From TrEMBL:
Native source organism of the sequence: Chlamydomonas applanata (Chlamydomonas humicola)
Family membership noted in the UniProt record: Belongs to the ATPase B chain family.
Keyword Transcription: no
Subunit structure comment from the entry: F-type ATPases have 2 components, F(1) - the catalytic core - and F(0) - the membrane proton channel. F(1) has five subunits: alpha(3), beta(3), gamma(1), delta(1), epsilon(1). F(0) has four main subunits: a(1), b(1), b'(1) and c(10-14). The alpha and beta chains form an alternating ring which encloses part of the gamma chain. F(1) is attached to F(0) by a central stalk formed by the gamma and epsilon chains, while a peripheral stalk is formed by the delta, b and b' chains.
Protein's cellular compartments: Membrane; Plastid, Chloroplast thylakoid membrane
Gene from which this protein is expressed: atpF
Described purpose of this protein according to its UniProt entry: Component of the F(0) channel, it forms part of the peripheral stalk, linking F(1) to F(0).
Protein known as: ATP synthase subunit b, chloroplastic
HAMAP family in UniProt: ATP_synth_b_bprime (MF_01398)
Pfam families in the record: ATP-synt_B (PF00430)
One GO location term (cellular component): proton-transporting ATP synthase complex
GO-annotated molecular function: proton-transporting ATP synthase activity, rotational mechanism
Keywords: ATP synthesis, CF(0), Chloroplast, Coiled coil, Hydrogen ion transport, Ion transport, Membrane, Plastid, Thylakoid, Transmembrane, Transmembrane helix, Transport
Length: 174
């Protein structure tokens, strides 16, 4: 029961429970709204600040993650470029090495061919010289045999001069 002012300037007791409860409820709601409202507003404001701070941190982390991603992509592109350069350099070196080996091989083949030609020429000259010496030796042996069989001195001189001149002509040509 609440005390309410009466119309004559005094206080009286209000016996209407329904009105009294409404008035009490209005007073309690007013007090709750004023105290809890301020606290709730402060709480909501703190929560808002926390959420905004978290959003800013998340945004900053997203920016940092994007920067790291961009750096990683740049690193990957650089690595791919370097790998391509290494691959191209390897191909160039291999090609150069192949060309060098082929050139050296061709040079060795040319030297072997020259050596073969010189060797064949040497043995041809040797065989020709041996054949020449054999033929000359046989001719000289036959000439001696004819001369020892009884040629007269005039014929002997003529035959010797003939063969000596032939031998000299042949020797001079070679």
């Amino acid at each position: 029961m609440d005390l309410l002012p009466l119309g004559h300037g005094g206080f009286g007791i209000n016996t209407n429970i329904f009105e009294t409860n409404i008035i009490n409820l209005a007073a309690v709601v007013g007090i709750v709204v004023s105290f809890v409202g301020n606290n709730l507003t402060a709480l909501l404001e703190d929560r808002k600040k926390t959420i905004l701070s978290n959003l800013e941190e998340a945004n900053q982390r997203a920016i940092e993650a994007q920067e790291k991603l961009n750096k990683a992509k740049a690193g990957l592109d650089l690595a791919k470029k370097k790998a391509q350069e290494i691959r191209e350099e390897g191909i160039a070196r291999a090609t150069s090495e192949i060309n060098t080996v082929v050139s050296e091989h061709e040079l060795r083949l040319a030297k072997l061919n020259d050596f073969k030609t010189e060797t064949v020429s040497f043995y041809q000259q040797k065989a020709f010289k041996e054949a020449y010496l054999y033929v000359v030796s046989r001719i000289m042996t036959r000439v001696r045999e004819r001369l020892t069989r009884g040629l007269d001195s005039t014929y002997h001189v003529v035959v010797n001069n003939f063969y000596v001149s032939r031998f000299t002509e042949y020797s001079v040509k070679k």
